[in-house]
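Lecture 7 notes: from sequence to structure.

We start with a single chain of 268 residues. Read the sequence below before looking at the structure.
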Amino acid sequence: MSEYLKIAAVQTALHWEDKEANLHMFEEKLRAYTNPVDVIVLPEMFTTGFSMQPAKFAEKADGPTLAWMQKQASLKNAAITGSYIVEEEGKYFNRLLWVNADGSFHFYNKRHLFRMAGEEKHYGAGDKKLIVEVKGWKVCPMVCYDLRFPVWSRNRFSNTEGKMDAEYDLLIYVANWPERRSHAWKTLLMARAMENIAYVTGVNRIGNDGNFIYHTGDSAFYNFRGELISGAMISTEEIISERFSMQELREFRKAFPAGLDADAFELK
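Now the structure, written as tokens:
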């Protein structure tokens, strides 16, 4: 178990429905970023923007984006995550891919599809959360609209030898979240951190998409109290990073073990 986990968040504009341009852009940004980190987080649908044309842009699960992410993870010696469009058995998914530095990978299909944009008409919904481990830290990555649904994001706690153990230590949201709902984005990130007694990272794009919907980013890191640790400048392309402390998290959970009083529930 590592005492610290260092996360980098890539806040940037995206080239609308242009995979080659986006992959080249991210490759250039990551090449120029020399700070050592453990996890690199890219936005939702980082190869296309939030596109409702999966038939045109989807690729197989073992396609070029996976290969690209494996290469970048190896070069940066870090895990890398973000979502893109995948076709599998005749269905399309907004799939978050988590790729480790050694090339191994896991995936999570976005559970909550944004019906206000008709996402549910084009994509299949996932039904399984993903918990990955990095340097002994347990991480739960999710996608954009999932942020609005606290039951799906809810941490599970148990009492082990007098201490509160949690299902995860860090919750990550990758997004294409528009500026007109930025207040909700920031408020919900804080809420998810407080109620789950976990660090939270939110990574969002900036700029206009192909539907002229503007995004200001507001990518940020929150601690287990729901307090803003640091964040990106509004509407600015930058890579921000933060170092999280396991000792601080454990001390807070020990002093405030509210998770042990949480209601039991079953998801269906």
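The first strand starts at residue 4 and ends at 11. Keep this in mind for problem set 3.
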